[in-house]
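Task: encode each sequence below as structure tokens.

Item 1
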Amino acid sequence: MSTSDAAQTGAASITPHKGKLGIMIPGMGAVATTLIAGVEAVRRGFAKPFGSMSQMGTIRLGKRTDDRSPLIKDFVPLAPLEDIVFTGWDIFGGNLYDAAKTAGVLDRDQLDSMKDFLSSIEPMPAAFDQRWVKRLDPKFQKVGKNKCDLANQIRNDIAEFRAKSGTDRQVMIWCGSTEIYIEQSEVHQTLEAFEKGLVEDHPDISPSMLYAWAALKEGIPFANGAPNLTVDIPALQELSKKMGAPIAGKDFKTGQTFIKTVLAPGFKVRQLGVSGWYSTNILGNRDGEVLDDPDNFKTKEVSKLGVLEHIFEPEKNPDLYGDMYHKVRINYYPPRGDNKEGWDNIDIFGWLGYPMQIKVDFLCRDSILAAPLALDLCLYLDLAQRSPALKHLGIQEWLSFYFKDPDSAPGVYPEHDLFIQNMKLKNTLRHVMGEDLITHLGLDYYGND
């Protein structure tokens, strides 16, 4: 079979993106409103989708000499932005125009230019339990006799949205707050135990798990943008495979951790040692307020700390990283709002052990960085569900590029190196489209004819 025939076969196996795609978002705060307003701004021609690989990225096909590098959105059958319809849940109520004003991410003039659209979207009442997010006081939440009742109310919301919106497919992405840290327990081990736990109101089933279960039961892909346990449990991974509803997570890789996954691979390939890496953050948005609680910060800390350990592999490189001290701090500082500052002090050493230092001060906009990641994840998960090669895999490890603490199969360590993640993602797209994978070996350019 020729390369062109293989490509046609791969593309033909993917179900076309007919009709509308519904994006359903638990937690319609800063990230969600920035995502939704941004998509509408692009649709109206007010802006370009900067930061979105799916919209602006290219992908090389074949040899470098072939000069085939189409836009990803022109290569794979992604749902176009014009076909997206949004809905979601929130504990504060009100329409998205008011929510976006409260979040304070986007300029008022920009919001006013889309006031009609944003005002037309009103979140549904959320399933919420203050035990999991202590610093927030809900004003708009569901009431149910147990967690099974609440989860089924979410399923009813999904059914109602399908009927009213006329969407043919849906994707759910968690943009809610970071929940308190927990580890897996017996209720998480099998789908049977989990569903029994829903009925029995088991304390180890979090609100985010209710949304994930509801989505997966409806055959809807689910992405986890927070560091919560959520779909990192055998029960929901089992349900994902059974229903052919892909899952991905966890914790959007936005500011400081994004920089770490750029710098750390560079130190490693140059065999430069690291004796210490101190990271601190100040932010003033709702995320910062939630993370001001130690139990919620623990969840984020575990997510952020694992990055360097997996990249550096100190057990394999003891002389370089065996004694590295890694500290992460997050400080709630209301005046900063959504404009987070991530500061890193990195103590490295080189030839003969001589020390050097690197200082990084990233004054970033948290939701501006997160919104395009959320868009890409929704579009790629929809593609995965329409692709026979991906649909029943459960965890979509090829989407690790987007996460601080990527999910991976049991017994398989997650890949954190941003550049390997990028190669994995693009090779997966080539694979499902029937194109040759690219290894970058390149010897065929220099061989004999």
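Item 2
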Amino acid sequence: MAADPGARDSADTRRGRAARPATTDPRPATGAAPLVLSGATAVLPTGPVEGAQVTVDGTRIAAAAPEHARVIDLTGHWLIPGFVDLHNHGGGGASFTSGTAEEVLQGIHTHRLHGTTTLVASTVTGELDFLARRAGQLAELAQQGDLAGIHFEGPFISPCRKGAHSERLLRAPDPAEVRKLVDAAQGHARMMTLATELPGGLDSVRLLAEHGVIAAVGHTDATYEQTVEAIDAGATVATHLFNAMPPVGHRAPGPITALLEDERVTVELINDGVHLHPAALRLAFHHAGPARVAFITDAMDAAGFGDGRYLLGPLEVDVVDGVARLVEGGSIAGSTLTLDRAFKRAVTVDGLPVGDAVAALCANPARLLGLADRVGSLEPGKDADLVVLDAAFDVVGVMRRGAWVVDPGPSGPAPG
């Protein structure tokens, strides 16, 4: 059921528009009785298990199925945890930086249709006061449980590696201003991307670490040595590794090398076939290992919506054949990726083991967000967030907290 990124009126998008999401999920999956999802190959923390049974009781995964449980046969399918997206700017035609609350909910719903059951809303560079107000608005949705938090990408980034950010709005990371944004998020700030080599960068990293906010190195022109300093100060994430940072050099190894080699750092990767060559992805997995990679979308408004002209912050973006680029200058401007496509590409094109792809899309980002006790794996007691895939790794069912977002049908999908 995954939407073609170039099809504005795909079935998934039409379905998402009709739903007009509220702050609760649509139809309960279980009704009055627990539900057993039976026969699929379930990807558990120990690895894939064929012919597995996963029981949903209310909003949680249960340890055992009572006799009165309803059974859905998923033989021939995959059952995996719901995807967790650390870095997402919008979708379904909606921007998380500038959209109304209803539009933001529609963007969240669009990504849920593609299996993302936990999502952090990312903002782009703007005026500081505007971003503070925006953080307060997004914090309300986080308080309601629609978002897992807020990620600030900019304005504290390097003009040398600005990507799709307005250069006139960039500024050095003053710790007082960093604190202003964190406070404005009302406890829901989860991550901030910084060019840590700029004045105030290291002090800002320390401040973020003290307040339990992930400090991410990105849109940076830092040297290898400066990046090591940032990691020692408390930075733990590489924002879309390889993109918007100096390339690896044999005499100037740069930030990529420092971020890959340090076991304290998780590296974000945009696996859309545009941002990264497959060899770069393999390089990251080889050096960081599957426990330190998090696939993200870095999605903008066009994700799950279609080609056209959009705004990313104050900058105009053209989306052609699913690739977003700035109208002025042609820089890649986020992506139109959804995480189901990232997953399918990982296993069918990149050749990753299914368990490694699940770790990169579910367990690793859940751990970074401090949510591993609730989401990221199929285990008793955790939220019933899961995705049903057919044999071709396409989404045919999505459940969030025990409610179907994409319903596989009363008897389950036909075997793929």
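Check on item 2: Residues 128-144 form the longest helix (17 residues). The CA atoms of residues 125 and 154 lie 4 Å apart.
End of task.
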